[in-house]
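=== RUN LOG ===
request id: a7f3
mode: sequence -> structure
chains: 1
length: 445
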Amino acid sequence: MAVQIENLGSLERKMTLEFARADLAKAREARLAKVGKTMKMAGFRPGKVPKNLIEKQHGMQVDFELQFDKAAEIFYEESKKEGLALAGQPRLEPKSELNADKVVFDAFFEVLPEVKIGDFSKAEVTQYTTEIGDAEIDRAIDVLRKQQVHYHPRGQSTDHGDGGTNTTAQTGDQVVIDFVGKIDGVEFAGGKAENFEYVLGEGRMLPEFEAATLGLKAGESKSFPLSFPADYHGKDVAGKTAEFTITVKSVNWPHMPVVDDAFALSLGVTEGGVAKMRSEVKENLDREVKRRITSLLKNEVMDKLNFMCELDIPKSLVTSEQERLVEGARQDLMQRGVPNAKDAPIPAELFADQALKRVRLGLILSELVKKQNLSATADQIKAEIEEQAATYEDPKEVVRWFYSNPSRLKDVENLVLEDNVIKYFTSLAKVNDKAVSFEELSKLN
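=== RESULT ===
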């Protein structure tokens, strides 16, 4: 057995493997015997096919498989002996004839790069802080109230009132209308509807449509011109001007529930009423603030790591990552019920930049974890799982759910590992604290 290793580039290598075909004789005989036990052929009982016929039908395939297996075995043995850090799987190419006495393979592969870690003490990152007060809690509760909004006809007396003396359509009102549109006096497809319902101010309709509806009462009509944008999704009317006539069928004002114990109960707060509801809303907002701040810091740190570290990128790892991203995109389409998603062409090139960045960061993180001993501990993983589980009704069941699946545990481990890297980075870099409002925090990318 002989082995040679050549450098083909910064990370590319070629290992030439040579071994005697005779070394495979016993394994070949055993493999053919195994095949013969289940082989079926007309005129013979199963397992009773003569050796010469087994050889004739399966000999070449067995030779092919055994030679590849042997080449792979030698490759990994030599890689371990040479201390090679492999990046992905080798590409094995036979260089000799299948029946040659000396079998020769070339194994093309890449090794992991050297990662040059930058001086993190020269880096700066921003650590955002946000305080949650009564104003933020009130706004969050208003959002919850709007989710339970219901409508009453303007001018009609109800248990919640009549909406005031002004019965015209106003921003926030729900209106029900009939409309018809014409271009050059001719109705067009999609330009007519009856009992069409929408809420003024939500931006669902074109601005001219909403402007014409505002101020009308139930039973009133109005005509107005509407110019469709050149990029409007309806190609037949894009860039054209239509004359619309609308007739308002009903105008309904919005009623949001009063913030009281009954409202708290409707949100699942069974004890403590409004005070408990506000406390839970604050907990949720605090949790969202923590998640958002952590995400912003993580993204900034990862960008800094990407910029401050130098390394070559193994092409094979990028290709593998692209394939994973393509498969992930396909699974997403299938879950959404997209027709023919299983066979839809998804070009790997679409994910080239994303794959490159992920591989690069993965190698940097791996190097930092190894050199700085930043691996996730069992206690850290347990604490992270318990923190996530605390947001659910039955935390113990959620904890069991995490620990019952190695893949889920691995995801948590990776999350903790990233947190360890962030803590290490920020212990060296200059961290600038910046206080922002909840609204400002929500808008940051």
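=== NOTES ===
The mean pLDDT is 91.
The chain has three domains: 2-110, 149-255, 273-443.
=== END ===
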